[in-house]
Each structure stands twice: as C-alpha cells, then as structure tokens.
Amino acid sequence: MSCWMPGCPALGVCRGLAALPITCLERAKDLKTRLGILLHKPELGHRIGTSSKLQLGSRQRDSSREVLEWRESFDQLLKSKSGVTAFHTFLKTEFSEENLDFWLACEDFKKTRSKTKLASKANRIFEEFVQSEAPREVNIDHETREITRKNLSGATSACFNEAQAKTRTLMEKDSYPRFLKSASYQDMTKQATSRGINKRSHT
Predict the structure, then answer these.
(1) Which of 71, 127, 135, 202 is paired with 163 by a 20 to 30 Å CA distance?
(2) Coil, strand or helix: which one is 91?
(3) 72 DSSP 8-state letter
C-alpha cells in the first residue's frame, strides 16, 4: 500500500502495522493459512465433483437418446449437430461427403439476407458443387443442373432448392440406410442402449 503522500490515510495504517509485535503478524499469517486450508477442504471438492458428474450424466442421457433418435428418420439425423457430424464422418469413408456439404451450404445460403452476398455465395456454391466437373461435383441430373444455372441470373434464396432436394433424396435413399447399418453407428447405439440400461438399474 502506497503511503508517500502527506496526510495519506494509509500512513496511519502502515505506522500501526509497524508498531504491532512480530507475534501478532505471525498469528495473522497463521490464520490466513488456516482459512486457505478450510477453503480447499476435500469435502468442498467432493461436492463440486459430484455436481460435475450429475451434469455430465445428464448430458450423456441426452446424447444417448439423440443417437437412438437418428434411426427414426433422416430428418431427425439432420436436426442433430452430432448426428450430422457422425453422418459426415461416415460419408467420408464412402468418398461422398460432398453431398452433405452441398446440402449444408444450401441451408446456410438460405439464411443470407444481403442481395450482394446472395449472388456471390450462389456463384461460389455453383462452381464448387453443381457445374460440370466442379471440384466437389454432386450427383444430380443434367436438367437439374441447367435449371440451377439459369436460377443464378437472378439469385434468390430458393435458387438451389431443386438441386438440394435431389441431393437430399439421394442421401436419404442411398447413404442413410448404409449409415444405420454401419459398424460405427451400431457401436454408438450399443453404448447408448447400455447407458440407458445402467440408468434404469440404478433407479
């Protein structure tokens, strides 16, 4: 504490501390140490740890239920962030992740409000996914490709609707059933089911 200024209120405090016997200062330090030990008692740590475990358990139950919901419908899978991630990982093994990436790009595109950004994003998506021999060309028919190309001249949030719908149908009918049968998803459902059984056995 600075007390160099004349008349500083801290000056009296500093003089008062200096006048205290050393034993008083040592006792104060000892008291401070004991308070520190009390604040870090194992019981407190145990309570905090228990709270964390309860929160983690709740999250695990939610994620377990979510994993099992993915098999109810393709929509349920696409609604789940972790579901989309798991499906994307599976599509990579089949070298067809561009279908999901295109679908996600279209979803993001629909949220664009600026007309200038809408046009530039539309061209970028078309060049990356839709045009013939695009770097990540999606599997759509020639007619849908041409319709999408024409839509670019007056880009709106709906200009990829037909191409997106075709890609979604392809994933739902082809990739999604294989994902549900895949070893990775089967392992996830087993873990989710076992967590559900453990939860019931502890209640």
Answers:
(1) 71
(2) helix
(3) T
128-133 long-range contacts, Cβ below 8 Å, gap at least 24?
129/98, 129/101, 129/102, 129/105, 130/102, 130/160, 130/163
pTM (two decimals): 0.67
Residue 13: what pLDDT? 43
pLDDT of 54 strictly over 80 = no
H or E stretch at 63: helix 42-69
CATH topology of domain 60-190: Regulator of G-protein Signalling 4; domain 2 (1.10.167)
- Residue 131 per-residue DSSP state: S
In order, the DSSP letters of 135-182 are TT-----HHHHHHHHHHGGG--TTTTHHHHHHHHHHIIIIIHHHHHHS
